[in-house]
Amino acid sequence: MADTVALFTSIGLSEQKAKETLKNEALSCALKDAIVQAQRVRGASGVDKAMGTLLYSMASRLKDTNRLAFLSDCIVQCKLTTELQLAGHFPDCSLTQENHFNNHPQDPINQREFEEACGVGVVITPEQIEDGVESVIKKHKEQLLKERYHFNMGLLMGEARSALKWADGKVVKNEVDMQVLHLLGPKTEADLEKKPKPQKAKVAENEVKAKKEEVAVNGEAMTGEGKSLMEQLRGEALKFHKPGENYKTEGYVVTPKTMDLLKKHMEIIGGQIRTRFPPEPNGILHIGHAKAINFNFGYAKANNGICFLRYDDTNPEKEEEKYFTGIKDMVEWLGYEPHAVTHASDNFQQLYDLAVDLIRRGHAYVCHQKGEELKGHNVPPSPWRDRPIEESLVLFERMKKGLFAEGEATLRMKMVMEDGKMDPVAYRIKYTPHHRTGDEWCIYPTYDYTHCLCDSIENITHSLCTKEFQARRSSYYWLCNALDVYCPVQWEYGRLNLTYTVVSKRKIIRLVETGVVRDWDDPRLFTLTALRRRGFPAEAINNFCARVGVTVSQTTTEPHLLESCARDVLNDTAPRAMAVLEPLKVTITNLPENSKAEVRVPDFPANEAKGSHTVPFTHTIYIEQSDFREVLEKGYKRLTPEQPVGLRHAGYVISVQKVIKDTQGKVVELEVSCCNSETAEKPKAFIHWVSQPLVCEVRLYERLFLHKHPEDPSEVPNGFLSDINPNSLHVISSALVDTSVKGAKVFDKFQFERVGYFSLDPNSTADKLVFNRTVTLKEDPGKI
């Protein structure tokens, strides 16, 4: 078995996947034969992961094992290199290997017919894709111009895929999107409006939608699909309890004093919903916290309630002022205003008094087991669990007076948590001055003790927390009831995780210490300060949280969904500017050397009423190096010696007169002539340009990690620090940007036409502006 697992992992399968495969006898036999066949041709180390993926796909789908050797050879010989070509093992494919074999059951296999049926050796060039999509769009151009973005784009994709059978679907889709954008321009407000539907269809759709709606919260299923976050968070929508009706919640513990406590609670809150966002001030907030902020503040806001920002400041060793201010800044940046800013330390005296009461009631005791003994879930029972109450009261007082060393004594609660952990610690000794109380205290309460009691003290109605705290719900209820204080209701929701990143404080500190990133706000990270610095609008992050939805299950999402939300917001809010990242000098020979005109550029071309700015147009301009080629190739539409091109917004078409090169043969300058675009033949393309520009630094970012799950040992055996993408940051120190950005302030955002969305970085100076690329204009089709 071990040998077979090793064989399977040698082609790129994870150990877990290999073991799962072994459970399927037919599949494991077929895969083993396929690998042996492949290694016979390529050698033991010659089967890479891509080839291994195809072998696995083939073995898991092929029904006729007589063909296994033949198909293995085709994969090894690189005749079948894509899943599209290998789709021959799906019975619902129209023309595939399986269909080919069914139609040609006789041996030997007709090699020519097989290769023709499976696209062997067929290469679809980018130019062919561009031409194929262009002909499809040309066919529907009239209707496209009439209906614009309400046109059924699926029709274009279907016809393009039919015409380009063996092309990569993602590349085809990207080309369709780009050509549609070129034809129609960016979406207008009218394009964003929903297309009206017949009444009957709408009614039927609403019925289906009602059935589909499903966002799970504590087992209650509902949905957030198509709804704003506020709509999802309406009290009725989430089926949460109403204030004062805590006892109606499943699992809520009712005691003889519950109803009296709820009555007093209602007198204090007046029936208003109260929530809290309770971060520990020992690190910077990340994208997962954005969901917590939106859920806690958003639920209160959606239901006319209030939300407290409460710092859980019970560990003085790790708390710093910068974290307190940073957390509040991020909450306000996301658009929320706390009803009040509170601290767990506000209640230190009251929490201590309650601990004394807990001992008197026989529910807590002072223990002398060491910290190492208390770790994990199989903690041995404390020999001090049944010590006399009076003795624990005296010892707890001695703890408070500093008469024990750190780790020499703790206060533990007599209860068993849902995960089986016995007698959690309520107080421990720490001789570290507190950020707010100084040396007043040397004993500090733990989360398990503090959290529910602070919720009770603040009369929180809904204690919203992530799913991992479900194991603490019973202890939450137990402690409040053991002390006969008001008991809120704890509700759990799924935490939000992103791929291609790490968010733990410890790992980010390692990234900073090793110089991989500059600090907590390095734009390649997914802390909220990093996202703000990179240029993500707060609105986009809130929209992202709404699109993920309020789910009880843990959500792992890819960054492109967040990037899509950013594009949606920035398209409407980021004014346009022109920037050239890799400049090529262009001299316009038929303009006087001292000529200078002002060109008006709309800030938002789709809605020119939103304003404009002017940029100079002179004898010398700069274009992107990639917008010129010496040799005209099929499908290339920009500037060549034989092909003129238009200049965006300028009203001119330029034609090459002379190509100037340096001693190494590199093109360093073009001499061109220009003519008015109204009199010239319409060019195939319009390019951006700059004249008398600002020299700026531009920082282009890619994913920080190479793998989706850099913390997963099965994906990254050598640890997350070994998975750093060496191309995650590309700095262009002398990019040229038009003068409209000259007065920009830090975090101001722009769309650099045809390049991407950018934000002004805090490193900018009066002498040199620095821009961070937030996202490209379109999602990269190469991203997985």
From TrEMBL:
Keywords from the named record: Aminoacyl-tRNA synthetase, ATP-binding, Ligase, Nucleotide-binding, Protein biosynthesis
GO terms, molecular function: ATP binding; glutamine-tRNA ligase activity
GO cellular component, one term: aminoacyl-tRNA synthetase multienzyme complex
Domain Glutamyl/glutaminyl-tRNA synthetase class Ib catalytic: 272-571
GO biological process: glutaminyl-tRNA aminoacylation
Substrates-to-products reaction catalysed: tRNA(Gln) + L-glutamine + ATP = L-glutaminyl-tRNA(Gln) + AMP + diphosphate
Keyword ATP-binding in annotation: yes
Domain annotation Glutamyl/glutaminyl-tRNA synthetase class Ib anti-codon binding: ranges: 574-673
InterPro entries recorded: aa-tRNA-synth_I_CS (IPR001412), Gln-tRNA-synth (IPR004514), Gln-tRNA-synth_Ib_RNA-bd_2 (IPR007638), Gln-tRNA-synth_Ib_RNA-bd_N (IPR007639), Gln-tRNA-synth_Ib_RNA-bd_N_1 (IPR042558), Gln-tRNA-synth_Ib_RNA-bd_N_2 (IPR042559), Gln/Glu-tRNA_Ligase (IPR050132), Glu/Gln-tRNA-synth (IPR000924)
Residues of the Glutaminyl-tRNA synthetase class Ib non-specific RNA-binding domain: 3-169, 172-263
Residue span, tRNA synthetases class I (E and Q) anti-codon binding domain: 686-761
EC number: 6.1.1.18
Family, similarity comment: Belongs to the class-I aminoacyl-tRNA synthetase family.
Xref: PANTHER family: GLUTAMINE--TRNA LIGASE, GLUTAMINE-TRNA LIGASE
Protein name: Probable glutamine--tRNA ligase
